[in-house]
Amino acid sequence: MNLRYFSLFIFFLTISIDSFSQAGPKEKFATLQKNFNSTNNGGPTWDEFGDLVFEKNNKTYWLATFCNVQDTSIDYYRMFEIDFNSGSMKEVTKEILGDFYPTSAYNSPMYYKDVDNDGIKDLLIFNIGKELEATRPNWSDYNVFFKGDNLGFKKAELPGITTEKKYHHAHDLADFDNDGDLDIAYGSDVTQIFMNDGKGNFIEQKIQNLEAGSIYRINNQRYNAGTFGLLFSNLDNDKELELLATVSEQPISLDYKNGVWTANLFGEKGQFIWKNNVHIGVEQTLEIPNPQTKKNDYFFRVTTNDIPMEGGSQMKWMTKMFMSKSNKIDSIYLVQNDLSKTNSFFYLDPKLVDFNFDGTPDLFFKEDEFWGNTGQKLHAINQRIWLNDGNNNFNPSKLKFADDANQLVYILAKSDSVKKINILFSQRGIPFDKNGKFSQDIRYLYNRIDTIVYPIQNVQTIKLCAGSNLKSLVSKVPIGILIVENSNTNNLVTIGQDYLQIKGNAVGEGLITYKLKNDFFEGETNSIKYSIIDKPPVPLITREGSNLVSSNSTGNQWYLDGIKLQGENNNKIKASSTGVYTVQSTNNDGCISDFSKGEYGLITSTLKEENLMFYPNPFVNNIKLSFSAEFGNSADIKILDNKGISRFEKKSVQNGEIVDLSLLPVGTYILNLLSNDMGKFISSKIVKIH
Length: 690
Known about the structure:
Blueprint: E1 4-6, E2 12-14, E3 28-33, E4 52-56, E5 59-66, E6 76-83, E7 88-91, H1 93-97, E8 110-113, E9 122-125, E10 144-148, E11 153-156, E12 170-174, E13 183-187, E14 191-196, E15 202-204, E16 210-211, E17 215-218, E18 221-224, E19 229-233, E20 242-246, E21 251-257, E22 260-265, E23 280-289, E24 296-308, E25 315-324, E26 332-334, H2 338-342, E27 347-353, E28 362-367, E29 385-388, E30 394-396, E31 400-401, E32 409-416, E33 421-430, E34 442-453, E35 459-465, E36 469-473, E37 480-486, E38 492-495, E39 499-503, E40 508-517, E41 521-522, E42 526-533, E43 541-544, E44 547-550, E45 556-560, E46 563-564, E47 572-574, E48 579-585, E49 599-601, E50 608-609, E51 612-615, E52 622-627, E53 634-640, E54 646-654, E55 658-660, E56 667-675, E57 681-688
Parallel strand pairs: 35-42
Antiparallel strand pairs: 1-34, 2-7, 3-34, 4-5, 5-6, 6-7, 8-9, 9-10, 10-11, 12-13, 13-14, 14-15, 16-17, 17-18, 19-20, 20-21, 21-22, 23-24, 24-25, 25-26, 27-28, 28-29, 29-30, 31-41, 32-33, 33-34, 36-39, 37-40, 38-39, 40-42, 43-44, 44-47, 45-46, 45-48, 48-49, 50-51, 51-52, 52-55, 53-54, 53-56, ...
């Protein structure tokens, strides 16, 4: 499922996904009208798509914002139902949300949680409004609440949360007082905290050292109370959560005790400054569990500016990343790598996810240069994926991606830890009308879903016996497999849709390296270390009186006429039955020898029935028949195998005649003898040996 495009026309679409390793057709998503001078649509809609994908009633939904509902330029919340297995999508905005509701914000933060305590998850969307220079400093809008029910959602109001038109830039939801109900905080010029009373009512809380004019008074010093990012987190290991409010220069923590909040310093002043006299603001804070300290580290996404953009006085916005480790929580440092040195403002909303399924959280960045006027190109997708080394140190992934995919905005739609796949969304706007003519006012959108597949294990160690085949499953879904190296070409390697098969021809050690890939990505090198184990030597059978003895002292299994003798696993067996005995041996690695040559039990040199003798029995090639005058002077002979099929016949065999049975295979047979002149019949078992 790669380079897979979905055609999402306004109402319904179905496209089949047949493989994770084949590319799909490019299909038109929607037509968007664009009015560049309209304050209703001042942001470039074709680059905007929400990143909330959630499950409800065993279905998967995607909440996005697009315009072009009845040829209007206003943006709307749009809901789509997605089936990742079949590849079907259909728009269900009216069915699930009840109607089309307008939105003004770019990249609106969306929460899918039980906000009103009725046991059904709701949708809460924070709306900052259009950030247009012409309307500064009046940026504001209303938050939006969709109350969940058994079928979908209904738009409703939360007093104090959705009824205040404000610049809702900072936001978080958490149960700060540990009473089982979600509480809410939001802010920009000042932080506001609302306690959930358990009935869906939100009561604003008091911050006791907040002064008029959006100033915190801490230790007789004044600190800016404005914030772009909020995070509820336990900073002091008590039962309540604190609220981390990261403002321009000085991080502030708000502590809740005895029903009131108090602002305190978190770390040192100026921790987020990376260049002198440069504005800075922490947009987002993430908490990351630290396996060593058993506490949380913190990751900060910071917006700043750098140098004037070409042709104007406006500053070029940048995004920087900082961290603080829990072993020194108030020491905040700049994260340095190629991405953090060169990226623009447009790294939006890093998500914590175990991307490579190694048990530690990684970072996936949604990069989107929505202004399009900085000249900044998107980074390769691998640089937007930061992998955790296990100690919360992050480095870009080494995955490779198709060149055209590297130019696209991506969000993480789903991470499946069972199948070990990550499903990504992307979208691009093409400025051509339906006749292929370039247009500044109409863009056609193309949406695509791409899949990154990880191996079941990065390193596998296997053993197989010489001469055998072994399939090693490397993926839980069909995927392309590229063999990088086979250290011993005598051992043949073949590939399937999800496995490698090794033919163990040469005893010894070997290494196979391979990559998983499709038309979208190429994975890192993985390996299979294998050992080809030699089989035990073929056992030899000798006789000790009435016993048969295997030359291998352990691991034996005896057979009689090809039938396994249960419990006969010693190297010696009493040959108490007539028939062919064979034995196999198994070594400590489970490899099984070839069968030994057969030996016979209950051996008698002659058989006498009614004055009839035929010997030797068992025999090698010939058998001699002797019978008395009472039986007759001659007889017809017929020899049958154990299935009753005739294998030898001869007429008028004389008394004392030697019969050549050299063409018979080794085995046990039934000899039937019919007297020609006396009418007597005798049947007996004979055994041919090697």
